[in-house]
C-alpha cells in the first residue's frame, strides 16, 4: 500500500474512470481512498498517478490543478480531461508550488542572516 508514512507528507493523485473522467485529489493513503470511492461506484476506477508532496503544500497543489482544469470540470474533483491534460495540471501545479517555496526561502535569507548575526552579538545593519 502506498502511504505517506509521516505527518509531513501526502500524495497528490489522479484516478481515472471510464468515459474520460479523471479525479485529482490528495490523501495520505491514496490506495485506501481508491477503495473508498470504488465501493460506491459501479465503474472501475484506476489509480493513474501518485506523487508524494509536503503536507503543507498538498492542498494548494490540488486546488491549483483544479483551477488549471476548471473548463473541464464535471462535478467536484472530477474532470472530463485526457490523462495527459491531468498530468500536465498536476505537474504545473507542483512546479508552481516549488517556485513559490524557492522565492519565499530566498526572500527570507536576509532576515535569517540578520537574526544569526544578532545571536552572535553582531550589530544588525
The radius of gyration computed from the alpha-carbon positions, rounded to a whole number of angstroms, is 19 Å
Distance between the termini: 53 Å
Strand segment count:
5
The 3D shape can be described as globular
Q: Tell me the strand order in the biggest sheet.
A: 3-1-2-5-4
Number of helix segments? 3
Helix and strand sequence: EEHEHEEH
Which regions are unreliable across 5 or more consecutive residues at pLDDT < 50?
none
Q: Please outline the major beta sheet.
A: 5 strands, antiparallel
Helix fraction? 40-55%
Q: How would you classify the helix and strand content by structural class?
A: alpha+beta
Indicate the mean pLDDT. 84
Number of domains: 1
The fraction of residues assigned to DSSP E strands is 15-25%
Question: How does this structure look, described?
Answer:
The chain is an alpha+beta fold. It has one domain (9-119). It is 49% helix and 25% strand. It contains 3 helices and 5 strands; from the N terminus they run E-E-H-E-H-E-E-H. It has helices at residues 30-39, 55-68, 83-119; strands spanning 9-17, 21-27, 46-54, 73-75, 78-80. It has a 5-stranded antiparallel sheet. The radius of gyration is 19 Å and the shape is globular.
Q: Which helices and strands, and how do they pair?
A:
Blueprint: E1 9-17, E2 21-27, H1 30-39, E3 46-54, H2 55-68, E4 73-75, E5 78-80, H3 83-119
Antiparallel strand pairs: 1-2, 1-3, 2-5, 4-5
Helix pairs in contact: 2-3
Amino acid at each position: 500500500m502506498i502511504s505517506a508514512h509521516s505527518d509531513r507528507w501526502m500524495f497528490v493523485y489522479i484516478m481515472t474512470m471510464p468515459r474520460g473522467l479523471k479525479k485529482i485529489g490528495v490523501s495520505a493513503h491514496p490506495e485506501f481512498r481508491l477503495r473508498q470511492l470504488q465501493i460506491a461506484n459501479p465503474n472501475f476506477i484506476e489509480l493513474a498517478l501518485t506523487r508524494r508532496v509536503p503536507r503543507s503544500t498538498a492542498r494548494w497543489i490540488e486546488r491549483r490543478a483544479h483551477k488549471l482544469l476548471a473548463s473541464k470540470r464535471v462535478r467536484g474533483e472530477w474532470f472530463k480531461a485526457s490523462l495527459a491534460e491531468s498530468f500536465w495540471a498536476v505537474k504545473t501545479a507542483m512546479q508552481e508550488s516549488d517556485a513559490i517555496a524557492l522565492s519565499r526561502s530566498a526572500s527570507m535569507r536576509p532576515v535569517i542572516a540578520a537574526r544569526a548575526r544578532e545571536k552572535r552579538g553582531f550589530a544588525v545593519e
